[in-house]
Design brief:
This protein is an alpha+beta fold. The protein is built from 9 helices and 16 strands. It has 2 domains: 168 residues, Ribosomal Protein S5, domain 2; 143 residues, 2-Layer Sandwich (Alpha-Beta Plaits), CATH 3.30.70.890. Helix 1 packs parallel to helix 2 and helix 2 crosses helix 3. It binds ligand DP6.
């Protein structure tokens, strides 16, 4: 009753922001992402007869409270499906720094969904694993399949899952994450999603989502960098416009965030294949071609306010570790 899984975080090109059901994490729009290779969460789950409560050890530290409750919710679902009542020991480690603007919950819940279902003896197919991961963190649904991934909003719980539209080797892209602040963000995504509907701009963002999704899908399949760059930047800007106009307002951008955005746009105008996208934090994901990764990293490092740059290429699906 033991299993270990590895999953990558992902960066969204078309963002998930707002749910039609917060508890089930049923999104108001579909989204797109790519997995980030080299950055990973490894999670081991052991169901044990002798445990009275679930245990969570995250980066060598025992967690209680909300973090543990969120994990237990997924374990409860797995226990119900497998018809078992054993509590579990969950040991999870990230190889990337928390607070670096990379959503650790996506990799964490994808690895947990895979490891816990397997440890309980369940053979979930990819859509079922994606749904299970989604219940822990919406974006985790996209860290189950490999490469370039679409999360369809679906009609109900079962049909809201993610699938790969192209494998990791379809397009040699890289993500250079310009870290401008490593501090803990004030409002996390889980607290942010319910605020989306308080912005008068959210309805327009959602109404236009099918167009952005189609443009993004076409750009990826055609490897059309220019088309891809403009739709992804637009989608990120629209989400931040919603965040800034919700009640209470969420302002994630800092002066250095804007400096990176401006520089990226200028570099693209000069012919460098780069664009930005920003999640619920001040750090900037700068997407480029793999062959330009080192050059882009060096240029970002030279900007005032950029404290570090993490790099990743396109990652594969969540997978089991055979131990
Ligand atoms: C801005 O998946 O982190 O990164 O479901 O509450 O865990 P929870 O939220 P989460 O939200 C991600 C928001 C985003 C955009 C995206 O990744 O699509």
């Amino acid at each position: 009753m033991k299993s270990t899984a590895i999953a990558n975080p992902n960066i969204a090109f078309i963002k998930y922001w707002g749910n039609r059901d917060d508890d089930l994490r049923l999104p108001v729009n579909g989204s797109f992402s790519m997995n980030l290779d080299g950055l990973a969460t490894k999670t081991q789950v052991i169901f044990r007869e002798d445990l009275a409560e679930d245990q969570l050890i995250l980066n060598e530290k025992e967690e209680h409270g909300a973090g543990l409750a969120r994990v237990s919710k997924i374990l409860d679902e797995v226990r119900a499906a497998a018809g078992i009542s054993f509590r579990a020991e969950v040991v999870s480690e990230n190889n990337f720094p928390t607070g670096a603007g990379i959503a650790s919950s996506a990799a964490a819940f994808a690895a947990l969904a895979l490891a816990s279902s397997k440890a309980a003896g369940l053979e979930f197919d990819e859509p079922a694993l994606s749904v299970l991961a989604r219940h822990g963190s919406g974006s985790a649904s996209r860290s189950i399949p490999g490469g370039f991934v679409e999360w369809q909003m679906g009609e109900d719980d079962k049909s809201s899952y993610a699938f790969s539209i192209a494998p990791a080797d379809h397009w040699d892209l890289a993500d250079c994450v310009a870290v401008v602040n490593t501090g803990h963000k004030e409002t996390g995504s889980t607290q942010g999603h319910p605020l989306a509907a308080t912005s008068p701009l959210q309805a327009a963002r959602v109404a236009d989502a099918p167009r952005r999704i189609k443009t993004c899908r076409d750009a990826i399949l055609e490897r059309d960098f220019e088309k891809f760059a403009s739709i992804v930047e637009a989608d990120s800007d629209i989400m931040h416009a919603v965040m800034m106009t919700s009640n209470p307002a969420l302002f994630y951008w800092q002066p250095a965030t804007l400096r990176v955005m401006d520089s990226v746009r200028a570099w693209r105008a000069e012919g460098l294949p780069v664009f930005y996208t920003i999640d619920a934090g001040p750090n900037v994901h700068v997407i480029t071609l793999r062959e330009k990764m080192d050059e882009v990293k060096a240029q970002l490092m030279a900007l005032e306010g950029v404290k570090d740059v993490l790099t990743a290429t396109v990652g594969g699906p969540a997978h089991l570790l055979t131990d």
